[in-house]
Amino acid sequence: MPRLWNETIEAHRRDVHQAILDTTAELVTERGLRSVTMAQIAERTGIGRATLYKYFPDVEAILVAWHDQHVAGHLQNLADARSTAADPATRLHAVLAAYAHIAHEMSHRHPGTELSALLHRDERVAHAQQQLHDLVRDALTEAAHAGIIRADVTPDELATYCLHSLTAAGDLPSTESIGRLVTLTLAGLQPDER
Amino acid sequence: MPRLWNETIEAHRRDVHQAILDTTAELVTERGLRSVTMAQIAERTGIGRATLYKYFPDVEAILVAWHDQHVAGHLQNLADARSTAADPATRLHAVLAAYAHIAHEMSHRHPGTELSALLHRDERVAHAQQQLHDLVRDALTEAAHAGIIRADVTPDELATYCLHSLTAAGDLPSTESIGRLVTLTLAGLQPDER
User: Fold this and answer.
1) ipTM higher than 0.90?
2) Could you list the residue ranges that cross the membrane (chains A, B) (predicted)?
3) Tell me, what CATH number does A2's domain have?
């Protein structure tokens, strides 16, 4: 049965939308944030400039949408890591390890600090950061209730510590070194027995 | 005895140089990086534009110099923290605590992520980061030799972990919470006894 016309239109719109995001990320990586124009994006995507402007008002809006999509994917990975593990200790380890790998990937694929500065002014990015913080804090709260991590520091502060510590993964070269970073971070969470 | 003319000139130059740095940092904090001009800086410093251009070619160069000065001060604080402590454990604690306080202060006084992106392209800033890393790594190497921290991870990786973990101080509200962060970070360095 052929798709309804409306569905075909909708699927086409989604494809164009995605092509614009991917092309823009590509161009920014190649040429730097300031030198990419709407005309270049339209040309490489293979659509007219007028069409491009029906989707997005400017380059900045495209980058924010591209970043939103990545962040949503990352948050989903973390939620998946948490839901597939069997007990609080395994869940905490899974969440922290997943975040370390995301931090590593982002520092290597993110098109530069200039873009990062632009995006981090956006309030949706602040919202995503908050979701990330909450997700890690919840895993920590659960682990604290189970008695497997220290209870002398609030889960909120512990989450702040974990998220900063794990961004070190961006400066580490290998899966092994990232594994060791997760170990160090978890060691910091252990109850103080002295 | 009156100062020699050359010394008077030199002292005057240093004063003007410092006034330019301070005024520029002030203006950038008030108005944002992109809206500050050389003309505004000259006016608020109370010097002519032609004089300003004898000191610096552009706003970016002033900010780099201002940042250099802060970083040099911070590195000096860390070196002092290290040299006044009596033993490897106290020295390591002093260095990490000093860095946590610097990270806290920087996140509250630093005029925004846009400036941060600009500065972090500068290779002198990369050099200062390397000096910071080396200073922390040396304190860790000494502590590892004394057997008070884990030896299953290299001091280089441990320094990367510490420096990232302690930047969490920028998101923490109080001296007490920063103290707890230093405790967590140090706990991550403890030998693994399981």
Assistant:
1) no
2) none
3) 1.10.10.60
